[in-house]
Structure formats: C-alpha cells, structure tokens
C-alpha cells in the first residue's frame, strides 16, 4: 500500500509559482445549473458550503463540495 502524496511546500526563493487553489463555487437558491451526469436542474436548498440540493425534474439530488461537475447557467 502506498502513502498518499503530501502537499509540497513552496519556498519563497523558488523561481516557480505556488499552485493556486481554484475558487469555491457558490450557488444560490433558484439558480439554474447543469451537471455532467444528471443534466439541467434548479438549486432548491443549500447546506452552508458543504452541499446543495438540486431538483433535476424526476428526482432530487444532494451534490457535495467540490462541485467539479456542476456549473451555473
């Protein structure tokens, strides 16, 4: 079994830029969204910045953060 890769420390004297964390996606109730697997939907609930509840028509789905497969329309 291998160990997970540790995050590398960026030294201030390094000529390479530190990796930039992607911004956290924020959604509001009523936003129209598209999801790579589930299609088009509307946000109907928000749980802080942990998850959102989306109504995709025939079903509702709780999508957890990070929202890599979901974008706002």
UniProtKB/TrEMBL annotation:
<protein>
    <recommendedName>
        <fullName>CarD-like/TRCF RNAP-interacting domain-containing protein</fullName>
    </recommendedName>
</protein>
<dbReference type="Pfam" id="PF02559">
    <property type="entry name" value="CarD_TRCF_RID"/>
</dbReference>
<dbReference type="InterPro" id="IPR003711">
    <property type="entry name" value="CarD-like/TRCF_RID"/>
</dbReference>
<dbReference type="InterPro" id="IPR036101">
    <property type="entry name" value="CarD-like/TRCF_RID_sf"/>
</dbReference>
<feature type="domain" description="CarD-like/TRCF RNAP-interacting">
    <location>
        <begin position="27"/>
        <end position="49"/>
    </location>
</feature>
